[in-house]
Amino acid sequence: MSKKRRTKIEVIRDVLEIVRKSEEVKKTEIVYGANLNFERASKIIKWLIAGGFIELNADKYKITEKGEDILRELEKVATLFKP
What's the confidence (pLDDT) of residue 19? Predict the structure, then answer.
């Protein structure tokens, strides 16, 4: 049985959900929560910080208002494609 790979958008949504749920979260928690390796998680986190979707404070990540906005939009889109 093969697993379906997640799209980049699904992975980004998963990471944002983890950061939002925990309010402040360390990279290790993101890695395990989103089922990513550290290299891939680092790239996604770097992109999310550069885009202003999350921020880093004292080695913990926190979602920004912009991150909350995009996560709500991603959730809306995801509901459109549910069977």
Answer: 95
